[in-house]
Structure formats: C-alpha cells, structure tokens
C-alpha cells in the first residue's frame, strides 16, 4: 500500500496521517454545482471491495469513502461516535450498541443492527477466508466459526451477537476487553446490505455501502474506482464535492507530475524524488505531520529456515544505519524506529528495541558470523515497486553488503497486492519490506494482527512467528481491568517480540501529502491516513 491506513498494511514509502501508507486510468471531468470531480491517487487494492476482506491502505481508503462505521477517530486519536448513538458496557464483556436513525445503504435499504451482525458473522467465518478474520476473535462464538483447517464450521453465526431490535445490537465477548469500542472504527466492522449475501462476487467490483459516496460504475482493475456523492447520507450537507475518482497508479513519479498538472487533486504519498522540492512545488498545499505507520524488514522464519535464528535477524538489524536512511534517503521525512509500537500510541517506549536497533557494524558482523551467517552468503530482499521504496531498499542492501559481507539481491514486485498475495500464499521466501499503520489507536493493534498465532492463517503474520509467552501476555493485556495493567502486559509482549525480532523496525512514518491547485488548503488526513472528505473544498 502506499500509506498506512486505518490499520492495515501500508503500500507506500511515504505514509500519510495528521499530527495528534506506471499508468493510471482516466480521471473524471464530471461536475455538480459547478464543482469538479476530485481525483485521488491510489495504488491497486489487494482484493475486491469488501470491508472484511480489506486489510491494506489502498482498499481501506476506498472503504472510508463508501461506508460509515460505528465510531471514528478525532485529531487526538480519541474515539467518537459516528453511526452509533451509544456504545455502553458495565463490565467490558457485554456491550450494547444503539444505532442512529437516518442511515441507509446506497440501494435504499435501511442500515440495521442485523446489517452489522450479518457482516461480522460473514467476516468471522473461516470458510469465507476474509483478510480481517482475526479481528472478530474476541466475540463469543468466534471459535465455532473457526474450527481449523480441514474442518467445517457447525454454524454460521456467533452466539455473542444478539440483535435486540432494529437499532440495538448486543455483543458478548469471550472475556472483558476495554478497547472493544475503539476497534469498531475499522472497516472490518462496517455493515453489509442484504444484496451482498446474494452475490458476494459481484459486490467486489460494485459495492453497496452506507457512506458519503456511492459507486458510479464498477471498479476497473488497474484503472479507477469512481464514486459520486450520496445525497441521502445524514452528513451529505457537509460534503462540498460531487464525488471522488480514485485513479490507480503503478508509478508515484507519474502521479506526482499529474498532481502538479492538476490531473490528480490529492496525493497522500509524495514520492522520494520530489521530497526536496515538494514544499516549493506545492506551497501551502504541501501537508506535513506525524503518522501512525512503522516500516519493517520482515523474514518468513516459518517458511525459510535460513532466517530461523534470531541472532541472524538481529545482526541484520544492527547492520542497518537507520539514521543515514531517514536523513539522506528520506530527507528527514522519517525517524529511526526503536519499537514495534508507534510513538503516537500509549505504550510506546523510546529505545525499547535497544542494541539490535542501534547501528553497530562491527558488533553486527561479529554476531552474524558467530551465528553461522546465511547459506552461500546470499539473501534476497523483496519490495513493492509501486510504493516508492526502491531507493531505501537499495540503500539497505548496500549497507548489508558492506557491513555483513553478504550478497543482497533486490527483488521488485510490480504491485503491492502481488507481494502481499505471495507472502500470504507462502510463495515468497526472501526477506521483505512491509509497513503497518494502525487500524485503531491502541497498542494491541501493533502486536496481535502481525505477531499472533491466529494471524498466520487469517491475518497478517507473514513471518509465521509464534511464541506462547507472547500469546499469554496479549491475552493478559486484552483482559486487564485497568489501562496501566493492559499497557504493561502489551509492553512485555513487545519486549519478547523485539528479542525474537521476526521483523526489523526500520523507521516511523511522517505525513507527506500534496494537493493540486484545484483544492483549497485545509484538507484533514487522520492518523489512520484516511481523508476527512468533509474538509475537501474546491478552490
């Protein structure tokens, strides 16, 4: 993905969030009330446009336009009610969600409590192989829908979901989890209309949402996703544009030239090639800030035993000069990473990674050799070429060759979805570049979706990493009765993962976005790197 999105994998080298992730298809010239259709640069989404099957930044950006969730997140990362009228609990285990009136799907169907229950049951069922499946695992009855490989679920509903009436959904968790309300802003928890269940495949290219924008035609792969304003949305009066066309690019430099030429209006991933000139090129239309993303080098430790030793992985980490990469390659639009948890989230600790994240080539070489090095003294490092990663990945390769004496082959994948699919299918055995942006502002979200056992088959654990002690501590954090106790448990899990280092944290993202002359300054991009479309105003 280009930027890190509402939690998910990030495609781009430049991720976008507000302080507190070759040729594209044709744009649109349609107008309404004198305003022109807004065009936003986008990378190719990994999957079809189903909320529960979207776990990367490009697809999530589209979900954010087409759907309205129960909650949203403000500039301070605090959870605010959106479609929910109230979300209440007495024990953090049983939650009562009441919906506001006035919301309909784009086909006119009313959005009800059943719309949410049906969507969550579908996403949680292992037979449907949805990318966000593990995010439902805290709901009672999730295990019944996930009996394991080779077994069929005996039911298609979770007993923890009870539709009390048209506007009320009662959710019972397997154990208390104080952050459940915070989770509900992510697209995995969006509702689905009845039409989806009649033909899920057709829905992938022509989704019917409940958001501020509705589809205008179908999703055309490698070209565009065109939407128009949905006038019946309760907040439609706040939207000042007739619609958004997401124009898909495989090359960020091409997209940036189109931004300067007014053929693209919003780009949340200014390419490295423009980093030194963007402020001058764009003036007040250049947006900078902090971001929730973390950039990694990962290892398929379960599927390629050459990376099985943590000593090898930590030596590779210690041989990377993060300061040089963030200052010289990224021109200070990144900061060196020293934790798996981003500084914007409670639980982050400066220097948590310690020596393995501190550049020391002599110590790295000594440890690398003592651990036996790599077979043939070679390694491969894969990355997605559509995200602006070439320069920094090649810089890392050069550092490893110099500091460890290994021969590093850099392997570009044309699109982000390609490397994600190959990693998910266990087809790629080299080290790989990835980045993560939070789905919701909570330390658990930087750990469980990437490093838990559940996330191997149904989530984003592409390393295949498993540590029983980590599982235990994550559960302790989830069920803790106070925020302090929860954070302590998550930090202890974080410490173990840092020690094992299935991934190497390399840098924290910063916001680097741009607007065309067609858009007024003042566009808000949240910490999930998603556009607040009510702040987009034609110039």
UniProtKB/TrEMBL annotation:
Please list which residues make up the signal peptide: 1-22
Q: Which domain of life is it from?
A: Bacteria
The family database entries (InterPro entries) matched by this protein are listed as: Peptide/Ni-bd, SBP_5, SBP_5_dom
Ranges where the Solute-binding protein family domain occurs? 80-454
Keywords assigned by UniProt? Signal
Q: Does the keyword Signal apply?
A: yes
Residue ranges the record marks as coiled coil: none
Question: What name does UniProt use for this protein?
Answer: ABC transporter substrate-binding protein
Task: State the organism of origin.
Answer: Streptomyces gobitricini
């Amino acid at each position: 993905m280009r930027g890190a999105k509402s939690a998910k994998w990030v495609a781009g080298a430049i991720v976008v969030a507000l302080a507190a992730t070759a040729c594209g298809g044709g744009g649109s010239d349609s107008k309404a009330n004198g305003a022109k259709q807004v065009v936003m640069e986008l990378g190719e989404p990994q999957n079809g446009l189903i909320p529960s099957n979207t776990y990367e930044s490009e697809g999530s950006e589209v979900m954010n336009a087409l759907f309205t969730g129960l909650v949203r997140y403000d500039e301070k990362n605090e959870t605010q009610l959106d479609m929910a009228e109230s979300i209440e609990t007495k024990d953090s285990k049983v939650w009562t969600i009441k919906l506001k009136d006035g919301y309909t799907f784009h086909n006119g169907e009313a959005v009800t409590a059943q719309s949410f229950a049906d969507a969550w049951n579908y996403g949680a069922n292992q037979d449907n192989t949805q990318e966000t499946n593990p995010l439902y695992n805290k709901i009672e009855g999730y295990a019944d829908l996930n009996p394991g490989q080779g077994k069929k679920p005996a039911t298609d509903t979770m007993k923890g979901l009870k539709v009390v009436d048209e506007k009320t959904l009662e959710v019972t968790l397997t154990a208390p989890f104080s952050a459940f309300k915070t989770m509900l802003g992510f697209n995995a928890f969006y509702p689905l209309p009845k039409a989806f269940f009649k033909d899920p495949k057709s829905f992938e290219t022509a989704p019917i949402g409940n958001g501020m924008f509705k589809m205008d035609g179908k999703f055309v792969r490698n070209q565009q996703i065109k939407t128009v304003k949905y006038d019946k949305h309760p907040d439609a009066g706040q939207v000042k544009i007739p619609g958004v066309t997401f124009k898909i690019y495989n090359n960020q430099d091409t997209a940036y030239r189109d931004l300067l030429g007014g053929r693209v209006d919003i780009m949340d991933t200014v390419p490295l090639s423009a980093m030194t000139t963007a402020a001058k090129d764009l003036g007040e239309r250049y947006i900078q800030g902090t971001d929730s993303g973390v950039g990694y080098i990962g290892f398929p430790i379960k599927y390629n035993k050459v990376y099985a030793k943590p000593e090898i992985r930590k030596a590779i980490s210690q041989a990377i000069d993060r300061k040089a990469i963030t200052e010289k390659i990224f021109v200070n639009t990144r900061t060196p990473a020293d934790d798996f948890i981003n500084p914007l989230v409670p639980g982050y600790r400066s220097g948590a990674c310690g020596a393995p994240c501190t550049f020391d080539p002599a110590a790295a070489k000594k440890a690398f050799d003592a651990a036996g090095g790599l077979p043939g003294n070679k390694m491969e490092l894969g990355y997605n070429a559509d995200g602006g990663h070439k320069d920094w990945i090649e810089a890392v390769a050069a550092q490893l060759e110099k500091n460890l004496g290994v021969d590093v082959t850099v392997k570009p994948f044309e699109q982000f979805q390609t490397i994600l699919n190959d990693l998910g299918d266990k087809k790629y055995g080299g080290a790989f570049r990835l980045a993560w942006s939070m789905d919701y502002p909570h330390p658990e979200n930087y750990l469980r979706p990437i490093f838990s056992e559940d996330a191997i088959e149904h989530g984003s654990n592409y390393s295949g990493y498993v540590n029983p002690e980590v599982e235990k501590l994550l559960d302790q954090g989830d069920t803790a009765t106070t925020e302090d106790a929860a954070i302590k448990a998550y930090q202890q899990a974080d410490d173990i993962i840092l020690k094992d280092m299935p991934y190497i944290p390399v840098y924290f993202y910063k916001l680097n976005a741009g607007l065309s002359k067609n858009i007024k300054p003042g566009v808000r991009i949240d910490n999930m790197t998603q556009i607040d479309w009510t702040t987009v105003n034609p110039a």
